[in-house]
Design goal:
The chain is α+β, with helices and mostly antiparallel strands and about 120 residues long. The protein has 2 helices and 5 strands; from the N terminus they run βββαββα. A hairpin with a 4-residue loop joins strand 2 and strand 3.
Length: about 120
């Protein structure tokens, strides 16, 4: 199964005046569509173009040769403009609807429990 997740870049971390690094890799603090926050590596080919508030696609496919499967969790695409906004909104809408369904199920479950001592 091929799996990717949508996220929004909160902060880009790259070597510079305030960051001393042992290599030239770039990381980003990302808010995922489901409100999780992660610090992820950025593919070198796109690292120079990444900015805060960019919508990104994160590769969650398993790392080859590792068992049990461990997701790569690497930023592989930057979704700009309309494409990025639409993708972000689709996932945020899905998350909101899922939360509403979950709350409704919890409320319905409690309503059917009779009071007892």
């Amino acid at each position: 199964m091929v799996q990717f997740h949508i996220g929004k870049v909160l902060k880009v971390i790259r070597q510079g005046k305030d960051v001393i690094a042992s290599d030239s890799s770039v990381q980003a603090i990302v808010e995922m569509w489901d409100h999780n926050q992660l610090t992820l590596t950025v593919e070198e080919a796109i690292a120079g173009q990444l900015k805060a508030n960019d919508i990104v696609l994160v590769d969650y496919n398993p790392i080859n040769g590792i068992s049990p499967p461990v997701p790569k969790q690497v930023i592989v695409k930057i979704l700009k403009g309309k494409q990025g906004k639409e993708c972000w909104e689709l996932f945020k809408k899905y998350y909101s609807e899922r939360q509403k369904r979950k709350q409704k199920e919890e409320d319905e479950g409690q309503a059917g429990i009779p009071y007892s001592r």
